[in-house]
């Protein structure tokens, strides 16, 4: 068939193509070998592969699919893409049969063996390399598992072996007699008489010790020795135990000797060497004898139980007091008198009886030693409980033996020490609210804070309180009081029982104990009302008192109870405090409406109101941005400082005290309060002599400076404040007391000097407070300028104040200079050079194509492109999954067909066997019937 013919079968076309390509048919004759035969052979092989590929591609035209480009108007002849679906399909089926089919067949297998030996899946390694590497790895693992400090671990070492047994494990080698062992003694090599006797006649006499023993005999001897040593140790232990028991039994006999002191003569006769070198056992016995014995104690009581016991003791004490007032006899008093009569010394016994009577009435019930005692009072309720319990224990333990009394006395002393520590801790816990009301006794020294510990202040106040109480004749107070709900009822209660001011602390303590919250459901409501009563009485005492130091100490004692009740009932306390603040605000508005410069109008707060404001600052957090009590208090203080006018020294003292409250309140938050700074500037300008000596034009300069910085100064250089300027030198007190100003203090030069000193001190305090503020320079530049101008007048009028004012001005000036140095002028922020932004062109660079989607936004176009690619890939993945599913279905169907064919073949074989047996059975039956017929015929 020629090459031009295209008809015929596929086989004929294949043969014709192979013959035309020169692959089959006659081959050319071999000539002489050339040097380039290898290159020619490679070239011919490449050509042969190309002809085979072309032949296979032209063999079946239906196996190719060509896609031509559509809409190509370029005029050039282009070749479209050619695809071979049959080849790709067969390749995909082959790939699935190699990868997917094994996974499908092994889907139910769970115990697949994976060979993890080193180099098992590395075809480049030889068998020798694999074995060597595995041996090295095994040695390394074994050495890592063992400890380098374990001397008994010999598993990881290489040992010599013989027939599989380690040579190091053989303890003894078998005794082998060699011929050359006795060559020196017997040079001829003959057997001597001793050896002959041992070999032929042994066993009748004693064993020779020189003969080496066997391993069994050696081990038996070792076991026997160990048992003997163990028996001896046990015997020694039993002997020691018996001796120890005897010493324990004799310890009671020698215990009395341990507490006796030897005579002086005996001690002198003892040598000094014995004192230094004593027996250790005797020292140990003495230590055991002096150790305190542990005594069983009751369980710790809850707070509710302790409060109930306190209330019960108070009621019992009140019953006994009423019984004594009625003239009834007290059993404890009789016992004490009997004890007193039995004593030999009368005077000491009488004093003891008198002291015991006083103690039985006050200290025995846990209520403190009373106001007439010199000991420290009990501030908190826990201390009262502990003291009461100790009193009861002392009463119960009176009839015990001497030894027990001594031990209990030591324990009670320890308990009293612990109680004192607890009282100190309780005082420290409430001392934050018990400060001297912003230093009632003395305001802070100029330029520095008084860092007196709160606990010391409280202790000193209590001691003064007790010393004052000792000097007075105080009537006996009842132990139970009703809980008043109004202030009038409380005043009636105090008047009824003739309660002295120094006894208020005791009365309030007993009321709180009797009406504890856990004793009744109504007690919390009663205590909430009683808190309002105490606050009202606090203000009442400040208004009625003469502002003496004793009155202020009594107010500090009341502040302890107010602090504790405020922490217990904060919501109700806040409502009452806000009510009081609103009343103070209405009084301020009423005074301003009457006239701020009217001498009779009450615009500035008095001592009671100042005390209340200080109490608010102690009891409530002033650093919060918003608080139900602290925020209204701050606004009220700012209104006082902004709207009230200065008319007298008392007004300036109130203003300075309010400024000190502001400084203590803003110590944490450091919020700016311009009213306080403006008041300090105005008070300093009023007090400083700006018209004397070298400062004659100072007033006009100060007014201009105040106007420049926006400081309101309505009272500076006014007629109603002209008499307040310092005109003469006077001694100033670094610690200023409010009692020197309120209620009716006379205007004296010393008072003005004290006010100026306090004003300058507060300026320094605020300067330290606002040192980190961005506006520090603008806030304190006018103050420094004012102080420097006033120094010129003080040199002529009051030279005693010059050093302190000069020192304060220099301190503020140094802080201003530092603030100036830390400031940085505003300037443009430096940035790195930015490149010119490149934007997408608004026109299309290619020719317009209506079928082509174009988007000028590159980001949006890229997002659309990515979405199209994702869609395309998803379709391709779905197509492949469908093909995988079709392949699995075909394999499953093929497997089912094979199983069915196998089953049919098996069934056919069984049926065929049965039919064959049946046919043979029928043939046998026919043969039998034929034989029977033949036999019958015969």
UniProtKB/TrEMBL annotation:
GO cellular component, one term: Noc4p-Nop14p complex
Keyword rRNA processing tagged: yes
Composition bias, Basic residues: 929-938
Pfam families reported in the protein's UniProt record: Nop14
Listed Acidic residues bias regions: 172-184, 329-347, 381-430
Compositional bias per record (Basic and acidic residues), positions renumbered to this chain: 62-71, 264-279, 294-328, 348-360, 918-928
Biased composition (Polar residues): 457-474
Presence of keyword Transmembrane: no
Annotated protein name in UniProt: Similar to S.cerevisiae protein NOP14 (Nucleolar protein)
